[in-house]
Specification:
homodimer, 204 residues, alpha+beta, Glutaredoxin, 10% strand, globular
Chain lengths: 204, 204
């Protein structure tokens, strides 16, 4: 598959989670590959002046209803984590290391790992800001944890995440999820239907 | 009709316009009355720290694409106004005066006036921040303009708008459109489908 859907997300984003559970079906429909692009919303929010939804004045209560209703709409299990929002730098580094790995024996786990991390947080209620939890999630799906642990402390991996976030900001990625196809950006779980029509029609 | 859909909006909100073109069909389906509740997003943004979409860092270009795509999705004519965003205090006062008027010979125009103002701005490209334009729009649909002109300068009408905005903020209305049914809030043109399901199912 030569064409892609670039899927920008933060693990700390409920709508990133919901969309992650739906994007592969769409990608398969149009024979596209999903490129998982973990970013840090904290860095993005420094540019936009935004804040996590639940911490925004007037918007906190609404956000919680909206998460629950949107999950129900798509029949996706969602339990709002007790610890929210959280820092996701360890999980992001692990994801990037895997995705960019030269050996297919490691990179092949990327998609499964993304889902496993999201579900550990939004279904099992695990604190994925904890490096040990991230390592456990990886171990559970068969990833070599010694390699992963050293990767999360590797300067090159840290630099790769910084670069991924910088590139995202350069592309005006301002939230999660943001899906980019052929340079056209779609923001939000609630724009997957528009993305579907866009791909069906080949643009406008 | 005893049950209502409270429709909070700012005339300067493109998604408020799109939703205004769709909400009556939904209201009719569930035999509810639409209560038009014009608010000033500027006052709301002072509380939330937000800004108009097109002025937010990273989000400006995206917003323009999103307006156009969303209008196309619903087959609604949308021409992004040259002068955007604008102050809508005159149009809001006129709407409130009409809606709250004790005489049905005036209040009956409210719905038609809301649509006429929105379309003057997003279809005909008229500057509805101008009181004279608002008066002309009203005149075109048969409203007595002398009455309207004095109403827009009436202290009671000004106070009514301030009160309407205060009440909205108290209800945690943080954007446009916000639709509230039986105390359940739905934010955004893109939540009309969820609102539809909510009304169909009588809640969760």
């Amino acid at each position: 598959m030569s064409k892609t859907i670039d899927f920008y997300f933060d693990y700390s984003s409920p709508f990133g989670y919901l969309a992650s559970e739906r994007i592969e079906l769409l990608a398969a429909k149009y024979e596209r590959a999903v490129i998982w692009r973990p970013i840090l919303l904290g860095a993005v929010f420094k540019v936009t002046g935004q804040a996590p939804l639940t911490q925004m004045p007037l918007k906190g209560n609404y956000s919680m209803r909206d998460f629950a209703r949107s999950a129900k709409e798509h029949k996706i299990t969602y339990k709002h984590p007790a610890n929210f929002p959280i820092g996701t730098v360890a999980a992001c580094r692990a994801t990037l290391w895997m995705r960019n790995h030269e050996s297919e024996s490691v990179s092949k786990y990327t998609t499964e790992f993304v889902h496993a991390v999201f579900r550990a947080y939004y279904v099992a209620g695990k604190d994925i800001s904890d490096t040990a939890v991230v390592t456990q999630v990886a171990s559970d799906i068969g990833i070599d944890c010694e390699q992963l642990s050293s990767a999360m402390n590797d300067q090159a991996v840290k630099a790769a995440l910084r670069k991924e976030v910088e590139n995202a900001i350069e592309l005006e990625v301002f939230g999660s999820p943001m899906m980019i196809v052929d340079n056209e950006p779609f923001w939000g779980n609630d724009r997957i239907e528009q993305l579907d029509r866009w791909l069906a029609q080949g643009g406008w």
